[in-house]
Amino acid sequence: MLPARLQFLLPAKYRAYPHPIVPVVRLSGAIGAVVPLRQGLAMQNVAPLLERAFSVPGAKAVALVINSPGGSAAQSHLIYKRIRAFAEEKKLPVIAFVEDAAASGGYMIACAADEIYADPASIVGSIGVVSASFGFHELIERLGIERRVHTAGKSKAMLDPFRPENPDDVVRLKGLQVKIHDIFVDLVRTRRGEKLNDSYDDLFSGAFWVGAEAVDLGLVDGLGDIRTVMRQRFGEKVQFRMIEPARPPLLGRLLGRRPLVEGRLIDPQEVLGALEERSAWARLGL
Question: Which of 66, 131, 226, 248 is most deeply buried (CB count within 10 A of its CB)?
Fold first, then answer.
């Protein structure tokens, strides 16, 4: 075996690593709420991070640090499946750590891990499906605005916020929500198995709990932070390899924004994204 100072001469897969290495991927923000230059979670920006994490030579496990109120069901499921695909391909255990929240789609992603840990004050759960919007039809009537919608297909303008709510549209929406909810419930049951406390009737009601309660319900495996748990698992000399997203080029950051008053710069899409994400966090009381 080559001395440590000459290990760099060998291909990565043949090197000896003096300390355990754990790549860390931070998954923060609302899921699907990705706009130019704004943080969020979607396959387009998460997949490269996961690929890099699972390709780190000498890795003993991959750690996910999750802080998300949820969001798009499809994006959550895609990220979940990509984590599981990499874990099975690379034969690496995945351990998730919840910060403020792993709720709704955030918890779906956490279920991709083989073990989940949370802080006692973390919010965990919200295994349900929600759709929220506004109705503006009375407002535009007061303003004297006429709404004109022409479609090919009777359901194409379903749930139009500028027209009175149609009970048939609501029935159709709830049917879709039930199907998505079933996918979520099956996923949690598959991943958590006998750890779940099925005696609790509200487990899949969309309710959420703090970390200690989540342990009792089997939604997480224990309480702890990444540094403490990983040191207990791999020793005091474990090394964390942070997998960071690439920053957009400076020119792109400047061109992607629009001027506002008093010399400040702001992207209108960022404002909408911020409002949407703030609403998602507010549902958890955060």
Answer: 66
Consecutive H or E run containing 97: strand 94-103
Residue 252 is assigned to a structural domain of this protein: yes
**Active-site residue, from 68, 72, 76, 104:** 104
Q: Does a structural domain hold residue 13?
A: no
Digit-coded pLDDT (tens) for 32-77: 866 555 567 999 999 999 999 999 999 999 999 999 999 999 999 9
Nearest Cα neighbor of 203 from 223, 222, 221, 184 is 184
Helix (H), strand (E) at residue 108: helix 105-110
**Backbone phi and psi for residue 25, each to the nearest 5 degrees, phi listed first:** -110, 120
Q: State the CATH number of the domain containing residue 106.
A: 3.90.226.10
Is 249 inside a domain boundary?
yes
156 assigned to active site: yes
pTM, two decimal places: 0.79
Residue whose token pair is 């703030």: 278
Whether the predicted pLDDT of 265 surpasses 90: no
Angle at Cα 123 formed by Cα 107 and Cα 244, nearest 5°?
Answer: 60
Look up 55 and say whether it is catalytic: no
How many domains does the structure of the chain reveal? Answer: 1
